[in-house]
Amino acid sequence: MSNLAMMMGLGSGAGGGSITLEFITGIGGTYSLTVPSATVQAGDIAVYYDRGATSTVSSHSGWTLVGSYDNVMDDACHVKILEAGDIGATFSRTNNTSYDVSVMGFFRLSSPVSNIHISSVNFPAYTSSVPADQTVTTGDYSPANLIIATYASYTAGVNIDNSPFLSEVYNQNGENNNKIHMYYEIQNDANTDRVISTTMNGGSYNSLTSFCLNFS
Predict the structure, then answer these.
(1) Can you count the helices (H) and strands (E) in the chain?
(2) How far are the Cα atoms of 84, 103, 191, 214 from residue 202, in angstroms, in the given order?
(3) What letter would DSSP give residue 54?
(4) Tens digits of per-residue pLDDT, 6-25?
(5) Which residues fall within 8 angstroms of residue 51, CB to CB, at 6 or more apart?
(6) CA dihedral 59, 62, 67, 70 (to 10 degrees)
(7) What is the pLDDT of residue 119?
């Protein structure tokens, strides 16, 4: 079990195969995002990725940080089990810059859970080339597995075009050509490790990130 999985797994175990997941919706914007009350409900899982141009990574009270990196740009990804007060609420980046872009994805569990377990996190430094392949391992816990992969870039739009098992959460073109493209895979029945791979170069400040979530 990875160190991060052990730190973030608040319960004694996760999923026994009895919990299943479904994708609800994705949204995108710039500095702020509002949780859609028409489709999202308390108990849903939210994945929140935001990017700007500061030396300070965004922090969000009540959310768990999955990973972050900053060097001219700043990228961060957080997750949360939504509460009643989150539905219809607006969440904003810590710093309002002229390069802001944000995406949220929402997922529903078949049974209520109290814990999100985070494992196999890939959150490397920026690159101006095609990002290196990443491996997401799923064996730390039992299904359901939620694999999240995100490609953030500056200048050109990008896809994670070499990983056909992924489905799109949202593709957002933010301020001043800053972009986020988020994807997901749900594994309800089995643990299947995945290689996250792209052939596309976004120009500069390319950030390919990936990780696995489980629930208990």
Answers:
(1) 1, 14
(2) 38, 18, 31, 30
(3) S
(4) 334 333 334 444 899 999 99
(5) 73, 74, 75, 76, 99, 100, 101, 102, 152, 174, 178, 180, 207
(6) 0
(7) 97
**Which residues, other chains included, contact 85 with Cβ-Cβ below 8 Å and sequence gap of 6+?**
none
Give the integer Cα–Cα distance in Å for 203 and 18: 43
Per-chain mean pLDDT for the chain: 92
Neighbour tally for 52: CB within 10 Å: 27
| Residue 111, token pair as written in the block | 């049974």
Burial class (CB in 10 A: 0-12, 13-18, 19+), 145: buried
Per-domain boundaries in the chain: 19-215
Instruction: Return the residue matching tokens 């050509």.
Output: 177
Instruction: Specify which residues 173 forms β-bridges with.
Output: 179
pLDDT in tens, 82-125: 999 999 999 999 999 999 999 999 999 999 999 999 999 999 99
Cβ neighbors of 17 (< 8 A, separation 6 or more) are 142, 143, 189
